[in-house]
Write a structure and sequence with these properties.
The chain is α/β, with parallel strands linked by helices. The protein has nine helices and eleven strands. Bound molecules: zinc ion. Zinc ion (ZN) binds next to helix 2.
Amino acid sequence: MVDLTIHTYTAAESGLFVNSYLLETPAGVVVVDTNLLVSDIAALKARLAALHKPLLGAFITHAHPDHFNGALQLVRDREVPVYSTSAVARAIREVADAKRAQWSPVYGAEWPTGTYYPNTELRDGQQVTIDGLTITTSELGQGESHADSYLLVQPAGGAGEPVAFTGDLAFHRTHPYTADGHTGAWLATLDRLAKELELSGVRRLLPGHGAPTGPGLLADQRRYLLFYREVVRRLAEGAPKLSDAAKTDLEATMGRFLPDTPLTWMIGLGADAVAAELAAEADRSSTERES
Ligand SMILES: [Zn+2]
């Protein structure tokens, strides 16, 4: 008997290729991340309905709308638990209205009109058991977003290998979102995550964007971020933002680093945030040298 079948709903490019995972167990379905746009959220709901099993719970990996926007359509009331770590829940409460103000003019009626906040907060390392699945949520702090976490899912009775849902800690074959300006912390998180997944014996990683792969994806993301930071550092020359010409240069350079890869508009989107982050890092290290 198979205790866990993982289905995936992936948005088109307009919805950033974001993945929602449907973990089907004998008694129901657990959803990991809930998509971005109204039409994709409706398609995710249809995918869930086609399994003819009840929704047992939903998990939100981190505080970005392409992961939390669909919770309201999935869970109208408190009928099922919507889990996240406490830090992720707090960050969603802090950013949801600002994200709607920023992106509703771009996406129009495709942006959901309301937000459903996680109703069940988890401590770092807390385990939840749902229909035989053991799901462990670990807090990772700032990284790709203002609050990241990942899930380790162990099928019933220890049968089968654990799998990791890593949210946006590593994008697989798309350019990543860097506009929250925590790339330094993100690099440290990638190191920690790689060690933890190795200790847990995880060989299968299911990312927020892109196809399932192995933990080697974390090293790929690390190399991308190191190179991106280096190019921004060179182009910014200490300034907390990049000129339009410098952004064009950055886009061309990262395009050559990761060719034939979508979401290229993310490259320029994060440029100023990372320039500001690097300028602040330089300020801090010169203050440390003087004192
Ligand atoms: Zn995402």
